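Why predict the complex rather than its parts? Because the way molecules touch one another can change local conformation, and only a joint prediction can capture that. The input here totals 837 residues.
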Amino acid sequence: MRWVDVKEGLKGFLEEFKREKTGIAGVILLIILVLVALTAPYTTIPDLPEKWRNSQYWEDNPKNVPPTWYNMFTSNKLVPQEVYLLDDLKITHPSDTVTIVEADYTLPKKYVLGPQGIIIKGLNVTLNEPFQAPTMDVYLLRPDGKRVPILTNKQLSSGTTISIGRDSKISANVYIWLVNVTEGKKITMFEVPLETILINDMVAPMFAKVEPGMNVSEIIENPQTLPGNYRLVLQINNPAPKDNQVTYDNIKVTFLGRSYGNMGTDYLGRDLWAGIIWGSRVSLTIGILVSVLSTIIGLVYGVTSAYLGGNADEVMMRINEIFASIPSLPILILIGATAGHITLWFIVLLLVIFGWMGIARISRSMALQIKEQTYIEAAKALGAGNGRIIFKHILPQLLPYAFAVIALSVPGAVIAEASLSFLGIGDPTAVTWGQILNAAQAQSATTKGYWWWVLPPGLGIAVVGLTFVLIGTALDKILNPRLRRL
Amino acid sequence: MGYLKYLAFRILNAILVLLIVTFIISALFVKVAEQSNRAKMYEELMQWERTEGSKIKQSQGLEAFERAKAEKQASLEKKYELNIPYWQKVYRKAVRTLRLDFGTTGMPIFGTNKVSDIIKVALPRSVILFTTATIIVIILGIFLGVRAARHAGSVFDRGLSIFALLTYSLPMWWTGMMFLLIFAFKLGWFPLSSMFDPQLTGWAHIKDVLWKLALPVITYVFVAFGGWAWTTRNIMIGTLQEDFIMAARAKGVPERKIIYGHALRAAAPPIVTMIIFSLLGSLGGAIISELVFNYPGMGRLYWVALQQNETNLLIGLTYFFTVLYLAGVVLADMIYGFLDPRVKVGASAKM
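Output of the joint prediction:
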């Protein structure tokens, strides 16, 4: 083939491709996907794969909550995440030894349950006089004028994290307060029923109607949300301000949402939106790499087999049949499970090894026809070597077909990678859709109704698949009119 | 080449491939088993040292203990086949597998230790699930495909094509998860787990099975029928353009007869091949789908075997899948050769 022919052919091909609506749709989808994958570090969290498995990194996020936009479709709205940094808080110093930090929180009408929890962290304490360590009282002022004591005399040190909703002592305090308001009596720590405060959501009652005469277990089971303005107050007593210093520069008060971000969170509080965006990188890379490599190997193998003919052909086809008859998914699982350290490259290799056979068969049958043509014989007569005839004369004829095959086999490769990851056999350092679904399955997200955890990764797989199917069928229609019959 | 000769050639070929594949599978699994067997042996040896070994050490001294320990280790090595070279082990395993002697599992599954009995329990379950679903898919696919081919370019045809393209890129297990979410969790129409209730018998058992099969079958049909219909449509469109159809039309044969009598028969060979392979493929069970639905068939069994490191069961199942595939290849060749005489003559005879 000469360069001019290639240029002409390409031009004609582009002209025809423009007329295929599905192909254009596929190309647009592909461009969007590539852009999403490339810009992932800038549009979401940088270096996500390193943070993904570090549960501490996600501490400040609510767990198992739906996306914020879901509120548009429900009457019972769920509060979003709210973070207060130094500038959002009111800090006053009534005396030398007392500092008061206040966070104003509004719970609008129609919202249910209030936040999932409150996390206070980032207080820096320099301790030189341990016997007079600073302490903190935390309480919540409610719109009905009631005051919920959350913590009293909590000793402070650097790294103290107060997490309302996850700390059983705080939950016990809330329970004591509930009993005090409803029944008017004071109970001690030891009278608090442990299983109640460990199992139930003890944050919602803080943001619910609590009146004298109401039943405590009724409030816990079925809290009636009380909208209005709340104020979280931290009162820090520092008896020795000269020796022990408390600085507030890094303070961070987080009101955990009952909904979060674009895609909600999973059981560790991980931002699923970031995970899904990053997952597209692995999916696209593996899909394209596996299909390109296995198509090339299959083509060369098939054409060589057809061209050589005779015994070599027989042997090569037997090898092909052996690979084809090994049940691939079980063997992949087995190799993956026993190989220990699995990288993405290893998965690509495995998928290529078990993915070239079909293409080899078809390209062999196509090459058998081309082989009989006269110009091949002419080339042979002129003394062209086997390699030259295969690579120069037969393979270029199959190239258009190869492009369609590459596009059409991407969905299979993407699904195969997702399946392996879903089974827990994936690169542990990567974030993939299959792994997100694996975690969802392990935490039985489907039987708990966490749709935001299951739906998006699969849709991602489907969109990548659809993109390449659209391109592939369009290519197929243009380049191989004969093959349209399958 | 005559038909019988052709058939004998294909069967011999399949047997040769089966032998080689069995050998490869054995080589792979023996390697896996070796590691776990070594660990098991050391565990047993440690156990022995703590109980009997310490007794010998106390009563007969250190020397006697060392001797007894070496003896015990040798006997354990023999028990776990660690004393013979790797390739010999592979050979033995392959021969035993070919004789269908799969051995036993470490832990009982479905109340038995014998691998062949375990497979006998799981196989019918996968058969009823996937074969039922496959049959529905085939009927629906062929019917809709033929309809689309008759009205090529119509709204129905386009809609079907789009649906087929969409479902082609869906992982079946993910669709299963979504269906579980929608139909089992939200609407509560179907059970969340497809594990059978072992206490039920008779009519109640059948009702339980049907109830638990429903959602997996619906999922399978939903994902698969579009692709089937689309492929059938493409084959039929090609056939409908052939000369003999024109001739039949010119003769005035009724359209219905042309479609189902002439065209579908001519398009039969590739469709029959597809039917064989999807029926056989259905027997293997889809590992992940059964896992998602918690359905106790072959696929889930494979997963359990892998989790519990039951090498013998894994070999048995893998061997079974391979035999099924090769049987399918031979069967397809047989029917293909029968329906389309061109296959056995000329250059393609050796394909």
